[in-house]
Structure formats: structure tokens, C-alpha cells
Amino acid sequence: MPSTIIDRYKKILSGEQKRFSPYEFEDAQYRKQKIQSVLRYAFEQVKQWTPEQARAELSWSDVKELKLHLVREFIEPPIEAKADDVYYMVEYAYPYLPRPSEKEKVLWVYQEVLAGRRRHFPPHYFQAVKGEERAKICFDYMWRELIGLTDIRQIPQMFAKTETAYAILRKYKLKILVDTLFFSPFDLVTEMYPELADPELWRVD
Hints:
- This protein folds into 2 domains: 2-93, no CATH class; 102-202, no CATH class.
- It has 12 helices and no strands.
- It has helices at 2-14, 28-46, 51-57, 60-65, 69-72, 87-93, 102-115, 128-146, 155-159, 162-171, 175-180, 185-192.
- Helix 1 (2-14) packs across helix 2, helix 2 (28-46) packs across helix 6 and helix 7 crosses helix 8.
- The longest helix has 19 residues, at 28-46.
């Protein structure tokens, strides 16, 4: 089976055939194996890359040149991927390659938002349990690395006044957490850090 898909892929590369049959990837049982075979052939035989080189070097222009957009449409991109990202095609071809941790992926997305390389977080990024975990990673990074607080008990004083809290969240691109996940800045902080729910910590002199 894999050899026949490669024969058809070779015809596509040579121009004898424009695309795969619409029925080529219908059978879910073999779909992944077929796609992996095409990707690996393209990376290893056509480009002469190792898996590590493929991960480091694959670009959108390579995808077009290798006609891999014809199989890309059958690969579900990770939630972090932007429209023109192709790195996950290499991960799909080589599932054994080391991958970034969830925290590393979240911080990559957040740093891109902060830098303006993304206009906003991916849709539904902060929904459900996974979304709450992502929210905490971003918020932790904000107060530790961006604001530079050294003690978690300093957070309530910064967030005690609602207007100030919203201004901070807007500045660091995290107002979406209150818009989609929490009822208020107070709710955000105390849900993430239950130990900060003590009213004494929120007292404004």
C-alpha cells in the first residue's frame, strides 16, 4: 500500500498527475500511514533531509514546491499553529521527534501576541480545563517575568482596584482572560491562586 501512494506522488511531482484522487485518503484506517509515507519520501528522498533538518528548514515555499499542500489539508493543525505554519507537518511525519512542552507552546504563543506577530490568541484558546491551564501559564509569566514581582502576595495589591487591574491586563494582552474565562480580575486571581482569597491581602489603605 505505501509503495503505491509513493508511485502516485512521484507522478504528481513530475507533472503527470495534478493531484491525488479525491478517494485516496477516505479510509481513515490507512490515511495517516499514507500521509506519513508521502511526507517522509518528500523530506528524505527529494530534499535529502534528516528528520531534524526537516523540522529546522521546512518552509511554506518547500511545501508548495513538493506539492505537500495536497496532503496538508488532511492534517489537523495544532491549536497554536498560524495559517502559514508548516512545522507540524514534520511532527506528523515523525511522531517520535522531541516536542515542546505544553508550557513552552503556550509561552511561544503568548510571546508572539506580545510582540505583535499575532493579532490575538487562537480561537477557543482559553476554554475548558486546558484553557485554564494555558491562562495560568500566561498570567504567571506576566507577573513574574514582565512585571517583575517577586512575591505572589503582591498581586492582590496590584489588582485591588478594578480599573488598575484592567489596565494591567490590557497592557499585557491578557484582558481576554476576564472576557472569556473569569468574572472579574478578583475572580481571576483567586481562582488561580486560592491562597490569595484572604480579604486582608486585598485591603486598600
